[in-house]
Fold this sequence. Notes:
Helix content: 25-40%
CATH class of the largest domain: Alpha Beta
CATH superfamily of the largest domain: HUPs
Number of domains: 2
Number of strands: 16
Strand order of the largest sheet: 1-4-3-2-5-8
Mean pLDDT: 94
Order of helices and strands: EEHEHHEHHEEEHEEEHHEHEEEEEH
CATH topology of the largest domain: Rossmann fold
Radius of gyration: 21 Å
Largest sheet: 6 strands, parallel
CATH architecture of the largest domain: 3-Layer(aba) Sandwich
Low-confidence stretches: none
Amino acid sequence: MEIHQHWHGLDPSARGASVAMGNFDGVHLGHRTVIDLARTSAPLGILTFEPHPREYFAPHTPPFRLMNAEARANRLAKLGVQHVYQLPFDAYMAGLTPIAFAREILSDGLGVAHVVVGADFCFGKGRAGTAADLQTFGREFGFDVTVADIVQSGGIEISSTAIRTALTEGRTRDAAKMLGHWHRIEGEVIHGEKRGRELGYPTANMSLSGLHLPRFGVYASLVDVLTGPHKGTYQGASSLGVRPMFGENQPNLETFLMDFDGDLYGQHVSVALVDYLRPELKFDGLAALITQMDADTHQARGILSAL
C-alpha cells in the first residue's frame, strides 16, 4: 500500500483510482461499506486528511480520535487498499470551495475515476458541499460518484460517536460489533518508570496522546508485535489510566504480555482491548497490588483462551 501526502505531481500509477473519501476514524463497519463500494476495476484508494479537520478547527477540544494515522493505515492495508491519499488539512485546504475541491483535488490532482462517500458527507469551505453536490461536480469533471447509505446495527446507526460512547462505558464487545474488529491502540513502546518489572509484571508502555480515552481500568487484551525480532501475537493484560497507586500521572496504556520474554522498546505494537475486567484501584500496599495483578492475569488468560 502506498501513502501519498499530496495531490499534485503524482506518478501516473497513483492516479485514476476509485476512492472512498472521508476521515475513516476507527474504520468501522459503516466505513467498510463505503470502501467496498469503491472496489471497481480501478485501483482502490482512500482519500482522507491529516490532521482530522475537527482537530484543525477546534485544537483545544478533548482528544476524540479512535485511532492515529498509523493504526488507520494498518487497518486499511488489511482491507486491500492500494493507495491512501492522506492529504494535509491546513488553511489552504479549509478554504477551498466545494467546486474548487472537486476540480483541483479530485479531478486535476488525483484524476479519480470514481468517488464513494457516505450519505451525510460534507466538504469544502464551511462544509457547504453535500453528497448531491459532489454528484453534480462528478458529471462536470468526468468522475463517477456513489453515495452510500448510513449503516445500522440492531436499529442503531453505526458511527464513531457511538463507538466512543461504548468505549467510555467499557463496553468493548459492543464497540467491536460496530467496528467489525477489536478496538486497538497502536504505536511505539516507550520507556516508563519500570515499576512493573520490579513487581514481576514487566509492561509495554504506550502513549495515549491525541486519542479518545476508553474507560480507565484493566482489560484482557490481544497484542500484535508489529516490528522487531519478537513479531507475533500474544495474550495480554492491559492497564489503561493514571496509575492511582503512584500519584498524579498522565494517562497511558501498560500491557503485560503473557509467556513473553524480550525487549520491546522502540518497537511498534497493536493492543486490542477485548474485555473490561475492573476499574483502576488504589491498594493498601504493593503486596495487595501484586495479588490483584495475579488475579487479573488469570482472568484475562481464561477470557482470551476462549476466543
